[in-house]
Give the backbone structure.
Amino acid sequence: DAGVTQSPTHLIKTRGQQVTLRCSPKSGHDTVSWYQQALGQGPQFIFQYYEEEERQRGNFPDRFSGHQFPNYSSELNVNALLLGDSALYLCASSRSSNYGYTFGSGTRLTVV
Amino acid sequence: LAKTTQPISMDSYEGQEVNITCSHNNIATNDYITWYQQFPSQGPRFIIQGYKTKVTNEVASLFIPADRKSSTLSLPRVSLSDTAVYYCLVGDMETGRRALTFGSGTRLQVQP
């Protein structure tokens, strides 16, 4: 049973560029959440998608956007990258009706 | 959401029992306590969850006093592979659509 799959694993971008990160949820899960984890800090909630709509959003600017597809997979887009966007981006999937979150291994984004 | 306070770091040796305490003075009546483990460059992994008294699984034990204002994660006979960051989270279990709030966690270093 595949868990949460994220791609790519590592990425280097230049300041001002745009980036798209991808997440395939665990089988049977319909909700996808994205988290940003800076070095030495705990994960910070970015937003959550359910039924192809953004349902909750953390304290992140609208440079951060996302999408959920009919097969429940999701994308995180970040525009106008800043050096401070360098972090590990984690995707977590869950079943909307039950508590239980499975995290992927993340995408390490470095902005230079 | 109830705020949690944990020690920033702990050191231990292989074979010892490790106890990590988390304070959550403002825990609500319907809140549960959940602990996650995170290895470098991986997403957090669920360890154990409880509401009151004691919960034990194959990995750890969770002790929760009657007032529920704190909890203690107990790892029996740690090994080098238990070196990780441990997060204490507090929140309800009603759905899988909760935005998880992570603190900075406790960095456990196990030495030979």
Observations:
- The two ends of chain A are 37 Å apart (CA to CA).
